[in-house]
Amino acid sequence: MIGKILEASFHQPEHQREADAFCAKIIEAIRNHKVFAWDLDKTINALTKTFPLTVLDVLVEQAMDDYGLTIFQDMRSVNRSCPLDIVSDELLISWAARKPNSRYTCLARVVKFLNQGDEDDVGNWSASAEKLIEVAPEPSKVLDVFLNRFGCQGRGSSLAATLVSRIPLIESLVQHSNSEIATWAERNAPSYAAMIERQRATETAEDRARDEKFE
């Protein structure tokens, strides 16, 4: 209900100040633990439809905490759609281009990086992620951020299995026409494979210990 009210109330340029203030209140409430980000998904979705640049300025850039987590990642962590999915790639890129030293990596922390439209696309980059990688002045920094997100997993799933499912993302970049991107993929593929093996060993040991506990 509140989402529809916001769409109807904040739909004109003269409502910019109110939208800014509302976004600031959202940040304050979340940081003071008065509400969780995922409780506000419809509210933020409505704001994103009417004032996408305000949402990017305030709820993406200004809300970034010390660990690089954001409101939008919190929403996606409970398997809810991210409001940024409705923002066009063109608008995202034009916003990032105004502050290229920080905003490309900022977006890499929040946009959907995996194409999950159907089972055949699970191992492919999302259109937004591909665009960010292609146009970022330093694509390796954007890729480093995405790489750190590869371990995000669904509830109850194996981290090792999740990491394995991301391998095609790295492999798809090995022959990239941009040498910086190709070099990044070649450099990170071996260390990523080694990380998977370590995680598999950890999970095997944990499973064995759990089984022995109940014998």
How confident is the prediction overall: mean pLDDT? 83
Number of strands: 0
- Runs in which pLDDT lies below 50 for 5 or more consecutive residues are none
Derived structural class: mainly alpha
| Biggest beta sheet summary | none
Short description:
This protein is mostly helical and 215 residues long.
Fold and architecture overview:
This protein is an all-alpha fold and 215 residues long. The protein folds into 2 domains: 1-87, no CATH class; 99-215. Helices cover 62% and strands 0% of the residues. The longest helix is centred in the last third of the chain and has 35 residues, at 179-213. It is flat.
List strands and helices in order, with pairings:
Layout: H1 2-9, H2 16-31, H3 41-50, H4 52-62, H5 71-76, H6 89-97, H7 103-108, H8 127-135, H9 139-149, H10 159-165, H11 167-171, H12 179-213
Helix pairs in contact: 1-3, 2-4, 3-4, 8-9, 10-12
Tag the structure with descriptive keywords.
215 residues, mainly alpha, 2 domains, 12 helices, flat
